[in-house]
Each structure stands twice: as structure tokens, then as C-alpha cells.
């Protein structure tokens, strides 16, 4: 592989004009496709194999139109203190709202509007009522005039002293990420300047990463409606693609400069950078792709599409790093180096000077030597510290978000609170019971449900035209995400046969959460198993991949503990912009596990590959650790800081899921890069010594040699491995 990538890198450098033009044309094509495509919708949501989904499918068959995906809105109206909504004045204002929605601007997208006085949608104390509106299209497809008419529908009523708030998904818009991602990119630029000491070298990873993300996100936007991608898919793809895109380019540029420091010609340095660091990029990218594509085992289409879309962006980032980065290096010339190094590296006798120069110990070298002197102390400190932070994860509570999880400043949240005050906490999470049978069975079901604890009201059954199916609405006593309501759903299901199904937002949330829990262990087994095999190919070792997987589990559980502490318990919530605490979103743990595993393996590959390269070429285990840190620690630290900054930038998002994922990924990268990879990994390698690189000879013969350390590349170029008597000696050292 190293030889193949060497040819690609060198070829891209020499044909830089053609390569750069191809990427620019691809970017323009993707942007044009995104600009001409229709606006993306919110994406359909389904949970195959669950009772809630079976009930929803039955509704679609027996009650055409009832289960349509059109947007809904609830205009909640509360009378002033001492008045009632049934009084002549408030009643007239409410009816004006109904009339405006039925015949005002954007009415052509409205399918139905209910009169609350006809449907008796008035609270028992007469203080609150609500108007239900349903639209023909999803919230993302509503015209601006329709959405504005909804927002303005209560203006006159507010002027008359009524409290009017709007809930439902009709006001849904694409999630806003704020200016946080711009700050993240700015931090990345500063870190790159400090790392490289050159504005050109610092700008190159940013430029190429933006090209890759631009192509990936534009392609997702262009295909959003065709593939039914959700509105958050492109944001998550941008988050991951930007982080890995900068990191992958950073490692290629760093290795290129290291090759120049040894006196290589520029095209040769580009080829070698692609052949060595590029090999690490390929395998690091593969681990991320495996983790993201592996989300398909959960069997939830929305999550699968998110994973595939983000994986596609990662693949683009890898291709950009292997081709566009060497091409841009060709245009940059000597400007990728600090001013003080240019004459030294490109003047006469550069190779001789480079060969004779003695390197002073850098920060990575000093840190590695410190860990090697105190491996047990460092190992215990890292494991115990992360273990303490992971404790809150034992109290993890999961649920799907509803309007009650939104910031208190939003009209949706205020509408939710008004309905809870007027009609009870359970009114916002009604249960829909679908009966596959005649009226007699439906009446029997109603009578049974009325006798259950935790039920406030049960509506009479509503039969379809054929009379062979009925819908019953059950209002629970407590909020939808409460334990009592979840127990009520289970009680209804346990006492019913296959012809009585429970669905609705609360039932869907329960089934979704259970599906997430059931899929977590199989997903972990699949992803960790495949990545273990991949890392075994890269490092030709059993213990190194095992250590990598265990270290990941430690960092991801600690990150989940931090998420619970901040978003569920509210610790330091104001510092991170958390306005509303509550259960963690059901998909958060499994999604974070997938993404963090891929990113964690990035640092493992980049850092330990250099150690293996040194070990294979004759260095003692301890010295190989020092060598790996001398060449890779500074760049890995810079890459981690950049990734943390990019993820943390999404804390400014208005969407709670994006905010939570941004925080979780930033914290997880911090724990994994600085505690696990920079401390626990060298401590474990120091304690294992030669055993760390042991691989049974029979397994060594079975595994293909992917040659990440560039042994075949050196033979191809007619060079002898450094510090060894030959290739055979290299293999003996590894298997000793």
C-alpha cells in the first residue's frame, strides 16, 4: 500500500494543476446540485419491528390520511387572570385566529383547522383552549408566507391581553449552528499557525478540509429529498468531515515537512508523505467509516442514513488528503516552511546538514521519557481519573426530545407549559391505541383502559369507514417521558392481544429507546471486532489493538458521564449554554460510541504507527515509544485541539441534539487524545515491552502485509531499512 500511495502522492504533486482543477470542478458541481435542489425536509422517522411502528402502519392502511406526515400546530390561548376563554371577548379573538388560518395567507397548504368550542378543547377551569391546525406538507416544506401567517395568527389576540403561544412541528426550521463553528475554525487556524510556524502551511489543511466538506455537505443537500435525509444529517456530516479533514491534511503536511528536513526533493517528499502518513490516514479513515456505517445494525433508517452520509464525507476527506494536499503542496513551494528553515533545507549541502543535525529533545520526547520512568503511576492516574468522571453514566436516562425539552424562551416550550397547566402534564403526550377489530372489541378495550391507574381520560373509539378498525386516544396522568407513563404503556400492551396496538409519540419514544439499548452491545461487538482486525493488520500485534479498544471504552464511558452531568443533572450547564436539563436523547450514546471510536482510532494509528516503524527498524521498545512521541506527539496534540475546537463550536447550535453531540464528541476527544493515547498508551507499552508487538508466527503468515511503516516502499526505492540488517531482521524483531 505504501508504494501505491507513494505513486499517487508523487503523481498528484507533479500534475498539481490537473488534480486541483478536478477537485474544483467537483466542488462546483456539488454546490450547483445543492443550489438547484429543492429544500430538504425533516426526513421520515420509522422504527421497523416495533409495536408502535406496526400500529402506525396499520393506521396508514385503515385510516388513509390520518397517519400522513404533514406538519401540525397547536395555537394555545390562555385568558387573562380572572377571565375565561369562553367569555365573549376572548372567544371572539380565538375565532378570529381560526378564520385567519382557514382563509388567510398560506391557507392553500392548510388541510384542517379545528374550532376549539366545537371540539370542546377547553380546560376544566375555562382558562385555556387550543386550536389544532394540520398542513398538507412537512414543516420544512411550508412556504414562508404560511409559516409567517401561523406566527402572526395570534397578534390581535395578544394585543387584547390574551397569552397566545404556538406548539407543534409546523414552526420547525433547519437547525442553526450559530457562529460557534466559525470560532472553531478560527481556533484551528491559530493552532495550525503555532504548530507549523507558517501561514501557508497552516492555511493548507483548512483550505483542503473546506473543499472536502463543501463537496460532502453539498452532495448531501443535493440528494436530501431523493434519499429522504433529515435536516440534521448535513450538520453532523459537516461536524465530522471538517474535523477529520483538517486532521488528515495536518498529518500529510507534517510528514512532508519532516521529509524535507531530511533533504528530500519536494516531489519525493510529497510521495513519501503520502506513502507513510497517507497509509495511516487510509486506515484511520477506514476505522471511522466502519464505525459510521456500522450504525446500520441498529436498523433505524434515519440513523443508518446519517451514518452513511457522514461516512461519505470521511471518504472524501481521505481522498482529498491523498491527492489534493500533495497538489497544493506543489503550488506552495518553500512557503510551507518557516522562514528560518528555507535556506537551510534548500541550499547547498542540505542533505548532508540534515543528516548530521542533532535534534534537541522536544516536548513529546520529554513527556515520553517521564511516562517511561513512572508507567504505573501514570497508568493508575489515567484510569482512576476517567473512572471517576464516568460514574454519572450509571445514572443515564434516555428519551426522545419533545417541546418540553426546548429552551424556555421558545414559543413551543411556552405552549407546552400552558397545555400542561390547563389540561394536565399528560396532555402533551397522548397515547394512540389502534384496534384491529370491530366496535365491540374497541368498546371492550376502552372499558379496560379506563380501569388502569395513571389514566386521566379515554376518548370513545373512532371507527374507520369499513368498521374493521378503531382509534382510541388515551390521556395519561403524567408527562410522556415519565416512568409512570412508560409503565402505563407497558400495562396496556401486556393486557391486550395482537389486535390492540399502542402508538403515538410516547410509545414511539419507548420503543426507540429500547431498540437503542438492544442494539448497543451488538453494535459494539461488530465495530470493535472489525476495527480490532484492521488494527491487527496495521500493527501486526494482538495486544496493541486490544489496548486501543479498551482505552476507547474507558474514554467513551467517561464522556457519557460528562454528558449526563452537564445535560441531565445541569452541572456547569450555564457554562455550556444548556437551558433545559432532562433525559439524554436516545440515539446519543450509540451515535457517540460510533463516532468517538472512529476518531479515537485515528490517534492510535497516527501515534503508534510511528512507534511500530521505529521498533521494526531496530529500536528497543522503550526507545520506540520515545521516537513515536518525538515525531508524532506535537502533531497529535494539535490535531486533537483542532478537533475539540471544531466540535465545541457546535455548542452554539439551537438544536439540542447537535449541541449535545458537539459537547460529547469534544469531551470524548479530549479524554481519548490527552489521557488515553498520550498517557495510558505509552504507560501500557512501557510495561509490556517486547510483548506489546508479539504476534504468533502462524497468524503472521496468514495476515496480509499492508506495510504501513513503509518497508516495501524503501525496498522499492532501493534503500535499506534503518537500524536493521534487512527485511528479515525486521520481521524477527517484531516476532521475537
How would you characterize the overall build of this protein?
With 736 residues, the protein is α+β, with helices and mostly antiparallel strands. It has helices at residues 2-14, 16-36, 51-62, 88-103, 144-152, 155-159, 180-196, 199-227, 233-261, 266-293, 301-332, 339-346, 350-356, 363-373, 375-390, 411-423, 439-450, 483-494, 505-539, 543-568, 588-616, 621-648, 656-688, 697-702, 711-716, 727-735; strands spanning 72-78, 110-113, 128-135, 163-167, 398-399, 431-435, 455-458, 462-463, 470-476, 500-503, 584-585. The strands form 3 sheets. Strands 6, 7, 8, 9 and 10 form a 5-stranded antiparallel sheet that branches. Strands 2-3-1-4 form a 4-stranded antiparallel sheet, sandwiched between helices. A two-stranded parallel ribbon has the order 5-11. A hairpin with a 6-residue loop joins strand 8 (462-463) and strand 9 (470-476). The longest helix has 35 residues, at 505-539. The protein is elongated. Residues 345-358 and 722-736 have low confidence and may be disordered.
How is this structure best summarized?
The chain is an alpha+beta fold and 736 residues long.
Strand content: 5-15%
Describe the largest sheet: 5 strands, antiparallel
Number of helices: 26
- How many discrete domains? 4
Low-confidence stretches: 345-358, 722-736
Kindly list the characteristics that best describe this protein.
11 strands, Alpha-Beta Plaits, four-stranded antiparallel sheet, single chain, 736 residues, alpha+beta, Multidrug efflux transporter AcrB transmembrane fold, five-stranded antiparallel sheet
Amino acid at each position: 500500500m505504501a508504494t501505491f500511495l507513494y505513486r499517487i502522492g508523487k503523481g498528484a504533486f507533479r500534475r498539481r494543476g490537473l488534480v486541483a482543477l478536478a477537485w474544483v470542478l467537483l466542488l462546483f458541481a456539488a454546490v450547483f446540485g445543492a443550489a438547484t435542489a429543492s429544500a430538504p425536509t425533516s426526513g421520515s422517522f420509522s422504527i421497523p419491528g416495533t409495536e408502535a411502528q406496526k400500529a402506525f402502519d396499520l393506521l396508514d392502511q385503515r385510516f388513509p390520511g390520518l397517519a400522513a406526515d404533514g406538519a401540525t400546530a397547536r395555537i394555545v390561548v390562555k385568558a387573562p387572570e380572572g377571565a375565561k376563554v369562553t367569555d365573549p371577548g376572548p372567544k371572539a379573538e380565538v375565532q378570529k385566529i381560526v378564520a385567519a388560518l382557514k382563509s388567510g395567507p398560506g391557507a392553500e397548504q392548510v388541510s384542517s383547522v379545528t374550532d376549539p368550542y366545537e371540539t370542546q378543547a377547553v380546560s376544566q377551569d375555562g382558562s385555556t383552549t387550543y386550536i389544532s391546525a394540520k398542513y398538507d406538507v412537512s414543516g420544512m416544506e411550508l412556504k414562508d408566507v404560511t409559516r409567517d401567517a401561523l406566527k402572526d395568527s395570534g397578534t390581535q389576540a395578544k394585543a387584547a391581553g390574551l397569552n397566545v403561544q404556538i406548539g407543534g412541528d409546523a414552526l420547525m426550521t433547519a437547525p442553526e449552528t450559530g457562529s460557534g463553528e466559525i470560532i472553531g475554525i478560527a481556533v484551528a487556524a491559530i493552532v495550525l499557525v503555532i504548530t507549523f510556524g507558517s501561514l501557508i502551511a497552516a492555511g493548507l489543511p483548512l483550505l483542503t478540509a473546506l473543499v472536502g466538506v463543501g463537496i460532502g455537505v453539498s452532495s448531501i443537500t443535493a440528494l436530501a429529498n431523493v434519499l429522504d435525509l433529515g435536516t440534521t444529517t448535513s450538520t453532523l456530516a459537516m461536524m465530522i468531515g471538517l474535523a477529520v479533514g483538517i486532521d488528515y491534511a495536518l498529518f500529510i503536511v507534517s510528514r512532508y515537512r519532516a521529509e524535507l528536513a531530511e533533504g528530500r526533493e519536494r516531489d519525493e517528499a510529497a510521495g513519501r508523505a503520502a506513502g507513510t502518513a497517507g497509509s495511516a490516514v487510509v486506515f484511520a479513515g477506514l476505522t471511522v467509516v466502519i464505525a459510521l456505517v456500522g450504525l446500520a445494525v441498529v436498523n433505524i433508517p434515519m440513523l443508518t442514513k446519517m451514518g452513511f452520509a457522514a461516512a461519505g464525507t470521511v471518504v472524501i476527506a481521505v481522498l482529498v488528503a491523498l491527492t489534493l494536499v500533495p497538489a497544493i503542496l506543489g503550488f506552495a513551494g518553500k512557503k510551507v516552511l518557516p522562514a528560518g528553515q528555507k535556506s537551510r533545507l534548500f541550499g547547498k549541502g542540505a542533505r548532508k546538514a540534515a543528516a548530521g543535525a542533532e535534534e534537541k529533545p522536544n516536548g513529546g520526547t520529554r513527556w515520553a521519557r517521564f511516562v517511561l520512568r513512572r508507567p504505573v503511576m501514570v497508568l493508575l492516574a489515567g484510569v482512576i481519573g476517567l473512572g471517576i468522571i464516568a460514574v454519572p453514566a450509571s445514572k443515564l436516562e434516555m428519551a426522545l426530545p419533545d417541546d418540553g425539552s426546548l429552551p424556555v424562551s421558545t414559543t413551543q416550550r411556552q405552549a407546552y407549559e400552558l397545555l400542561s397547566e390547563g389540561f394536565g402534564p399528560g396532555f402533551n403526550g397522548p397515547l394512540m391505541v389502534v384496534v384491529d377489530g370491530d366496535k365491540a372489541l374497541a368498546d371492550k378495550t376502552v372499558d379496560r383502559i379506563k380501569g388502569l391507574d395513571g389514566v386521566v381520560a379515554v376518548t370513545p373509539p373512532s371507527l374507520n369507514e369499513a368498521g374493521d378498525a378503531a382509534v382510541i386516544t388515551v390521556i395519561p396522568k403524567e408527562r410522556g417521558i415519565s416512568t409512570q407513563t412508560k409503565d402505563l404503556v407497558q400495562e396496556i400492551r401486556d393486557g391486550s392481544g395482537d389486535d390492540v396496538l399502542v402508538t403515538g409519540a410516547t410509545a414511539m419514544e419507548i420503543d426507540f429507546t429500547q431498540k437503542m439499548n438492544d442494539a448497543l452491545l451488538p453494535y459494539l461487538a461488530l465495530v470493535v471486532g472489525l476495527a480490532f482486525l484492521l488494527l491487527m493488520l496495521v500493527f501486526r500485534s494482538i495486544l496493541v489493538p486490544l489496548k486501543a479498544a479498551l482505552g476507547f471504552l474507558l474514554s467513551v464511558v467517561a464522556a457519557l458521564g460528562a454528558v449526563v452531568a452537564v445535560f441531565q443533572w445541569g452541572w456547569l450547564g450555564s457554562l455550556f449554554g444548556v437551558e433545559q436539563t432532562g433525559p439524554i436523547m436516545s440515539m446519543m450514546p450509540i451515535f457517540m460510541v460510533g463516532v468517538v471510536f472512529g476518531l479515537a482510532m485515528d490517534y492510535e494509528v497516527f501515534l503508534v504507527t510511528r512507534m511500530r516503524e521505529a521498533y521494526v527498524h531496530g529500536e528497543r521498545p522503550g526507545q520506540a515509544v520515545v521516537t513515536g512521541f518525538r515525531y508524532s506527539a506535537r502533531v497529535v496534540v494539535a490535531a486533537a485541539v483542532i478537533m475539540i475546537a471544531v466540535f465545541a463550536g457546535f455548542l452554539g447550535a439551537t438544536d439540542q441534539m447537535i449541541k449535545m453531540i458537539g459537547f460529547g464528541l469534544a469531551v470524548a476527544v479530549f479524554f481519548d487524545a490527552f489521557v488515553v493515547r498520550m498517557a495510558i498508551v505509552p504507560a501500557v507499552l512501557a510495561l509490556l515491552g517486547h510483548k506489546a508487538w508479539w504476534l504468533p508466527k502462524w497468524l503472521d503468515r496468514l495476515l496480509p502485509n499492508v506495510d504501513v511503516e513503509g518497508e516495501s516502499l524503501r525496498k522499492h526505492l532501493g534503500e535499506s531499512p534503518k537500524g536493521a540488517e534487512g527485511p528479515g531482521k525486521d520481521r524477527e524483531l517484531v516476532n521475537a
